[in-house]
Amino acid sequence: MPATTDFLRSDLDALEADGLLTTIRHIEGPQGARLIVDGRSVLNFCSNNYLGLANHPRLIEAAKAALDRYGLGPGAVRTIAGTMTIHDELESRLAAFKGVEAAISLQSGFTANVGTVSALVGGEDAVVSDELNHASIVDGVRLAKAARYIYRHTDAGHLEEILGQARGAGARRILVITDGVFSMDGDIAPLDEIVEVAERHDALVMVDDAHGEGVLGHGGRGIVDHFGLNGRVHVEVGTMSKAFGAMGGYVAGSRDLIDWLMQRARPFLFSSAVTPPDVAACIAAVDLLEESTDLVERLWSNAALFREALAAAGFDTGHTQTPITPVILGEAPVAQEFSRLLFADYGVFAQSIGFPTVPRGTARIRVMVSAAHSIEDLEMCVDAFTSVGTAMGVV
Ligand SMILES: *Cc1c(COP(=O)(O)O)cnc(C)c1O
């Protein structure tokens, strides 16, 4: 009998029975406060388009101009085909924006994490990671040959204990890694405490600022700026696919760090660069953030208004500190049904998230607030939550 993939069908059926099967909606136009889904206009509370830049005229104009000047593709990896000057420009602009010596542009935040960890630590070293770090950090840590340690979520006291163990075991170099903002709960890593503990143990610190840049700090400069830790965090990883509205990842830090990654980060050496129109859009996003803090301020005032209204309506929004607003409902099928009713009856697109992305029993609707939402959009969303919550008997 030849092998088949039939076994996957029963695995998929099992996911569906547990309320864990993800269904993907098909969107027929650009990102924004509203989306066209199956020919119908719905309110969008799913995307990471924090500042509404994904369809911003300045980014589109920049991408079109780059198409005319550089064409579509980068040709090959930069070490072989040569690097386009537009990538150099993005890197120096990002370094200036983040207040560091240098930056390297990669294809995505995912590849930035995967490529950086294994380039920095080897068999004689140790990696110490928050238990809830993003999947791309987890994969980066798995690829590195270093000893692995996990500390309890955002627990700097536990981190200190683990650092003592890693030192005791004779690690040459220790790299502490944390998400800046945790994407399922919206809580912020206590980076100030983490840096202090790391400094006491002579460890390097790497932060993944995917949900922090364009959101935290002055004008969206990120978590390092938010805590005033400039010069004390060795590796900042970022993505251009969330608040920056486009596509791509980067690492920011010292000149030596970036020079080393250009020699040793495998996604840089073995995968082609981001396309010129994407890069141009990213540069335009940096321009916008440097010109004005209005969008970032709007994002935060929208987030505060929304969270307060949901809490007043009786919903549990967990311990978020950012525009990521989890509405915790319990079991996965409840959250899935809630999301389905929001969409079907009220035209509100907000995705449910269950195990294994979040622990069992804490399934939720994760609501992503954006500067692109009007006050009326937010009020409509709260009304829809209240109606569905009342109908389902969860508030
Ligand atoms: C989204 C995300 C990434 C991946 O970024 P992409 O550019 O979409 O690959 C990495 N880390 C965290 C914490 C994220 O939320």
Keywords:
395 residues, alpha/beta, Aspartate Aminotransferase, domain 1, Aspartate Aminotransferase, domain 2, seven-stranded mixed β-sheet, three-stranded mixed β-sheet, binds pyridoxal-5'-phosphate
Summary?
By secondary structure, the protein is an alpha/beta fold. 44% of the residues lie in helices and 16% in strands. Strand 6, helix 8 (191-200) and strand 7 (204-208) form a beta-alpha-beta unit.
How many whole angstroms does the radius of gyration measure? 22 Å
DSSP helix count? 15
SS-derived structural category: alpha/beta
Topology as H/E string?
A: HEEHHHEHEHEHEHEHEEHHHHEHEEEH
Describe the fold and architecture.
The structure is a single chain. The protein is of the alpha/beta class and 395 residues long. The mean pLDDT is 96. The protein has a seven-stranded mixed sheet with strand order 3-9-8-7-6-4-5, with helices on both faces. Strands 1-2-11 form a three-stranded mixed sheet. It has two domains: 16-45 and 293-392, Aspartate Aminotransferase, domain 1; 57-291, 3-Layer(aba) Sandwich (Aspartate Aminotransferase, domain 2), CATH 3.40.640.10. Helix 8 (191-200) links the parallel strand 6 (174-179) and strand 7. The protein has helices at residues 6-17, 57-70, 78-81, 85-98, 109-120, 135-143, 156-168, 191-200, 223-226, 255-264, 266-270, 276-291, 294-312, 332-346, 375-392; strands spanning 34-37, 40-44, 102-106, 126-130, 147-151, 174-179, 204-208, 235-239, 249-253, 324-330, 348-349, 352-353, 363-368. The protein is globular, with a radius of gyration of 22 Å. It is 44% helix and 16% strand. The protein is built from 15 helices and 13 strands. Pyridoxal-5'-phosphate is lined by residues 108-110, 113, 134, 136, 179, 183, 208, 210-211, 239, 241, 249.
